[in-house]
Write a structure and sequence with these properties.
The chain has 13 helices and 22 strands. The chain is an alpha/beta fold. The strands form four sheets. Strands 11-10-12-13-22-21-20-17-18 form a nine-stranded mixed beta sheet, sandwiched between helices.
Amino acid sequence: MKRIMLAGTGSGCGKTTVTCALLQALTDRGMNVSSFKCGPDYIDPMFHKTVIGADAHNLDSYLMTDDAIRYLLHKNSGEISVIEGVMGFYDGFMSSGKGSSCELSQITDTSVILIVNCAGMSRSAAAVVKGFKDFAPNNIAGVIFNNMPEKLYGALAAQTRAIGVEPLGFLPRIKEAKIDSRHLGLITAPEITDLGAKLRILADYARRFIDIDRILEIAERADLHVNAPVINKTADVTLALARDKAFCFCYEDNLDLLRSMGARIAEFSPLANEEVPDCDGLILCGGYPELYADKLEKNTVTLRGVREKIADGAPCIAECGGFMYLHETLCALDGQTHKMAGVIKGVCRAESSLQHFGYMEMTALRDNVLCEKGHKIRAREFHYFKSSADVSQFSAQKGDTKWDCAYADANLFASFAHLHFYSDISIAENFVKSCEEYKCTK
């Protein structure tokens, strides 16, 4: 079971660039490649998926148990699995290493290649490598230097080899393959019209300057011991999933788990003003509704369908962008206001700074469609918006900070929080059960 992790010294060091370059180069060899992202990010797996032509997956040691991580890695692995790290190699939940790339590499017994951004550095890059290698126990086996002039590589390679870390190549600054960012991270893959050309450029540079054969040797690891979770196929339901450029943040493993429980997924596009499919439940995932608010407001066929379906009692999970879509009014980044579905009473307004960022734990303050009162769910928030709605049915906590975080009743869970069902399979079971009960009343 070949597997390798590409981890960085920090955010913005080029992890996604190097990962996509390697994925494309391996795919061009005709290999069956699988890709994974450490942590909860949605955007990087979209780039992976564009490269390999198959779904990419998340592995998160804060949200998931060790057994769930090893199960999902094993279940979704191909001939070789490439895992992209998150933030800096040792960075995790608050000041701990929980959820870090380092922790994930140890849980999965995966060798690590460190990505170092050499912009503004030469010999100091070797000091960075030594610091990461010596800081704590780790699986660091090699290093790739990003944004490095070719003429500097030979001397730096010798210095890192002397430290005990194998140099595996470099990438120079590649302006023609640059990917732009916005307020939540990189521009999403479907929005980049020339992404294929950029990926081919990256792969060409990887073939020229990165020792891919040696990486494949380092990727050889022992098979994982896997304890598969018990998943009961107990229902026969259809779930309508909002999915397009405005609603694109969805974990593939969540959908796979729902299918394993007996659900069929019927996708529809609010951006295309499509009818809500005949269904027994709704999933409105996150994304960028604020960028398309004018069009979403005008697409009254979908707005009416969503509103009527929820009013009829259909169970619904609405995460972040989906939660925003359910409000009476959305005040977008440009200050313009737009009418939305009107299920959630209140205004969702853009703020100038992040409102909540990162992992947290939610506690249910009433029985609801996902769980009973008192149940705790690990989740993640990352948004610039604030809601005036009553979201006091769940409380969230991160360190010493507490806040109200979700609207929840017998058929609706709506929140800025993003859920991964492998953090707690029972919430998926409860949702599917509610959909089955609704189906029986139709």
